[in-house]
Amino acid sequence: HLLIIGGDVSMTGAVQLAGIAALRSGAGLVTIGSRQSQIDTINLSQPELMCHPVEDQLSLEALLVGKTAVVVGPGLGQSEWGLDMLNGVLASGLPGVIDADALNLLAQRPRRTGQMILTPHPGEASRLLNTDVNGIQHQRFDSSLKIQSQYECICVLKGPGTLVATEGGDLWLCKEGNPGMATAGMGDVLSGVIGALLGQRLAPRDAAIVGVWLHSRAADLAVVDDGERGLLASDLSHYLRR
User: Fold this and answer.
1) Phi, psi at residue 203, to the nearest 5°?
2) CA gap 93, 172 in Å, rounded
3) Phi/psi at 117 (nearest 5 deg)?
4) To 10 degrees, the CA torsion angle through 236, 173, 157, 146?
């Protein structure tokens, strides 16, 4: 049972993409925790997604009960609400994924995450390390290892040749993927895939490595059928099942 937290006002698409990807990657149950005003919109998108309002840490604590894993960040925003959600997830002790605006909030108040999986793109990575994007891109191997060490996490540094940095200085390089993936929502899908694997009780290290490969491979299969141009994040769902 995976819980996905996000979808602040006007940003529900991200949690929908993550939730659907999680279902298509084998999660048995997926619950979306979002703002009260966004629940109806999310419910209409995919009937298999269970949606619950969560407005403060108290309601989040109740929602975390009985969950196997958690994803926080897709469409989260950087308001006080988003910070409360991130803090509550980190305090829960559940295995999980920190993505998108949750990474930007974490960068503002750096701390060790207890082996959570962080999934930054180069811009988010630059904020996590307080440097510039060029520095990240010119030293991708070193940057992913620095994030892993500084935040005591598993780091998935996205981009051409996505890297997974794990405890002990191990690095995994994904050779799958294509330029068509440089489009909105692809990161949300990746978060859902990795979250689903955590929910199926893969160790965080394995969930990150396998999730990155599955996500990129699904995109490559989609491109074989229809080409790179115009590839949408939502197109990956069918291929994730395969």
Assistant:
1) -60, 145
2) 25
3) -100, 115
4) 160
Residue with tokens 């309002």: 53
Structure tokens at 17: 């993409």
Prediction pTM value: 0.98
Q: Residue 155, CB half-sphere, CA atoms under 13 Å: how many?
A: 31
Residue 242's SS3 state is: coil
Closest CA to 191 of 65, 79, 102: 102
Cβ proximity of 85 and 54 under 8 Å? yes
Query: For residue 194, what is the DSSP state?
Result: H
- Residue 38 burial by CB count (10 A; 0-12/13-18/19+): exposed, middle or buried? buried
- In order along the chain (242 residues), what is the average pLDDT of each group of 10 residues? 94 95 98 91 86 95 98 97 97 97 98 96 98 97 98 97 96 98 97 98 98 98 97 97 94
* Neighbouring residues of 139: CB distance < 8 A, sequence distance ≥ 6: none
Cα–Cα distance measured from residue 9 to residue 66, given in angstroms and rounded to the nearest whole number: 27
C-alpha gyration radius of the chain: 16
Long-range CB pairs of 78-82, under 8 A, 24+ apart, other chains included: 78/104, 78/105, 79/8, 81/8, 81/35, 81/55, 82/8
